[in-house]
Amino acid sequence: SLNMDEITSQLQKLGVSQIPTFSGVLLYPQHNPVDVYRAYIIEQIHKITEADPAVINNAVAWTQDLKHGDLVLPVPALRLKGKKPDELAKEIAEKFECLLIEKPAADKTFVRFFFKPAPLASLTLKYILQQNTQYGFNPNLGLEDPSKPDSRRKKLIVEYSSPNIAKEFHTGHLRSTIIGGFMIKLYKAAGWDTTSMNYLGDWGKQYGMLSQGFEKYGSDEELKKDPIKHLNEVYVKINQDNAKEQKPVKELAEKKDELEKFKNPPKPKKPAKGKEAETVPEHKWTDEQEKELQSVIAELEKVQEELVQKPSIDEKARQFFKRMVDGDKEALQYWQSFRDLSIDAYKKMYARLNIAFDDYSGESTVNVEDMDKAAEVLEKRGISEDSKGAVIVDLAKHGAPKLGKTLVKKRDGTSLYLTRDIAANYERFEKYHFDKMIYVVASQQDVHMAQFFKILELMGPPYSDAIARCEHISFGMVKDPKGQTMSTRKGTVVSLADSLDSSRDFMHDVMKKNAEKYEQVQDPEATADTLAISAIMVQDYSGKMVNNYSFDMERMTSFEGDTGPYLQYSHARVCSMERKAAVPHDELLKADFSLITAKEGIELVRSLAQWPDVFLNTYKTREPVTVLTYLFKMTHLLSSCYDAKDVNNKNAKTMSVMYAESPEKKAALMALYDCSRQVLANGMRLLGLTPVERM
Ligand code: ARG
Questions:
Q1: What whole-number distance in Å separates Cα of residue 512 and Cα of residue 503?
Q2: What is the predicted ipTM?
Q3: Residue ranges of domains in the chain, CATH in brackets
């Protein structure tokens, strides 16, 4: 970690006083070089304007673009009465004095601060070279009281991925996995105590389907080889058989609905004021039609009864699930082996994505007693009501008309997805006493999540206490390049393992094209896999989480543009340069950073100094794209460093001139590159990418 004494003595040498502190202002000079500057800026502005230090701290902002300064003060944000903001800006700029910062410029109502290059380089590179993998992160943010380093770490649960065993692992689950993995890494880097939770869809009638499917179509060998794929295949087949069996029921039910609708047409809406009433078309319901309806109903009942007697696949599935619920050993054994094998296979896939779960919970683990208890609370507080033998909650009656009605208990008494969610939330709160829990669930389930949250809120303590600490992070859909939703049923995709494998093979082919480099890569297959995963993840992170995006293999695997392979290429390139230069680490540490004077080099240093603030901002937005945007900007600055032309010799590159001129200059240059590599790697790791050293 950082040697703060060294930083302080360095500041002293530069002629500035001790880093000032202010009560009510939380700065982290031990983690963030820009916070050193903030401290001096607050001190100066306070001296000049007498504004409150906390207000000044909130007002001083980072800039979107370095050409607008390293930090900026929008003067109106000081909320000072009396002086006109533009005049005050001029006054601040004039009176401002700090040896670390250039004389500021007043720009209308803004004061722009540009850090002096030499001290900035020397400070920033010290931070990075000493903090290495920790540079940018701030483990104080997750403390109960961030100003007290010995206070308790807050507890976070992120529930994500949560596939349904036997059903397909679709792109929605992949997105949940990627985003949830990022949330865990983000909060960990902020010092939270985190738990990764997978809430498997591992309970329900589908196991009754699956066991029949397996008996009819399954193979133990295939199951061992690729359980996810095989179980899905078997599941699809038995569902097709079931659909065939159920076809007459479906047709008769549709006919019945149609007739009933005709018999009782919806009432015309009340006319708006001043408007004429809608004319209702003449409506006749004949005896003949009534006869037809009755015969359809009778036929339907007969067909349904036959299917129960037969018994049909559906009925057998129901019975099988009932046995599971009642604790039948044989039925549960089946279920257990499918579950175990699936989890093993998931784990392998998650490892490829740099993800490991601490807790494999699932719908099956929710206790019946907790569901009963919740049902009792719902009833006692008048939240739920009886509806034809089932239990429902009409959220319109409880101040949420948009959320409509929802079922909490079926007529046959079996539990539902929603009921299990309610009880699971309670159980997790009991077990973990979390400070925060995030559900990473696709936007298709926005209504479900809103209903679930609202119901818990209505239930009162402890349910309402728990849900007040919960948050649903929603995300958009993954479409194919034509903008269609992807699904295995439609045949547009592809299981997750298949799409990971095909992007890996694609990357592998790209790598083979450069035979010379290819030979130096130790495990090309593994590298190709890492690159492919980076491609997929970066594509996923490229927009805001709520947006849909298209899964576009061509685009995401390209080495040009803002892609995963581009980031990996930048990392591998700087690694290769470092290997060639072979400057030992302690020489980098001793380097004289004031030797970095080229414009491009200084821009790069300024960008590296911003990384802790970018992290902080990401912690606020929780959008991975915040990190990504920064990394692309920074790597572009890095690559313009390689290419910058020397001012004195237009035919030479600045950096190579510097490299060749003296060992001191070479060390300074390589320290800058090493720091860039470190920041790039830290950003990539935060996103869940594994930076490669060769490719
Ligand atoms: N297994 C569910 C599905 O695939 C997702 C679970 C989301 N989490 C929750 N607590 N409801 O649709």
A1: 14
A2: 0.99
A3: 4-115 (3.30.1360.70), 205-268+285-326 (no CATH), 534-686 (1.10.730.10)
